[in-house]
UniProtKB/TrEMBL annotation:
The keyword Ligase does not apply. This is 2-C-methyl-D-erythritol 2,4-cyclodiphosphate synthase. InterPro entries: MECDP_synthase (IPR003526), MECDP_synthase_CS (IPR020555), MECDP_synthase_sf (IPR036571). It comes from Thermomonas carbonis. Involved in the biosynthesis of isopentenyl diphosphate (IPP) and dimethylallyl diphosphate (DMAPP), two major building blocks of isoprenoid compounds. Catalyzes the conversion of 4-diphosphocytidyl-2-C-methyl-D-erythritol 2-phosphate (CDP-ME2P) to 2-C-methyl-D-erythritol 2,4-cyclodiphosphate (ME-CPP) with a corresponding release of cytidine 5-monophosphate (CMP).
Length: 161
């Protein structure tokens, strides 16, 4: 039996550290903190990569872009998305749509959500209306509520090409 769709889920989190911006969805956002990460620490794109990889049971972002590999030090996470997309296409799949939620108190995501959607759509070669980016808080509960870090979760639907 042939399955014509696959669904994947991804989650990522990074603690805040020194810095003056965060990268979210490929967009540089001014912030009073940075993130502690091996790459640029873009939780949105990392969660998306995990969702894409997970939909085809290809492991997770750490397998494909290990923090132990110096090539990925400070890397732009958009390269991760494009490489994951290439892996999907090699296997006869493409992203049909994705839905991403950023979890943090600050920075405010709303003013940047459209730009994130456009970056992600461009990197995946899909229409912007197939990319959802939204945000929520944890009502001051937990590490995100205490403003110690940022998290994101993503779901994506893959369709056969």
């Amino acid at each position: 039996m042939s399955i014509d769709i696959r669904i994947g889920h991804g989650f990522d989190v990074h603690a805040f550290g020194d810095g003056d911006h965060v990268m979210l969805g490929g967009v540089r956002i001014a912030h009073d903190r940075g993130v502690l990460a091996h790459s640029d620490g873009d939780v949105v794109l990392h969660a998306l990569c995990d969702a894409m990889l997970g939909a085809l049971a290809l492991g997770d972002i750490g397998i494909h872009f290990p923090p132990s590999d110096a090539r990925w030090k400070g890397a732009d996470s958009r390269a991760f998305v494009r490489q994951c997309d290439a892996l999907l296409h090699e296997r006869g799949w493409r992203v049909g749509n994705c839905d991403i939620t950023v979890i943090c108190e600050r920075p405010k995501v709303g003013p940047h959500a459209q730009a994130m959607r456009e970056v992600i759509a461009d990197d995946l070669g899909i229409d912007v209306d197939a990319v959802s980016v939204k945000a929520t808080t944890t009502e001051t509960l937990g590490f995100t509520g205490r403003r110690e870090g940022v998290a994101a979760q993503a779901v994506c639907l893959l369709v056969r090409t």
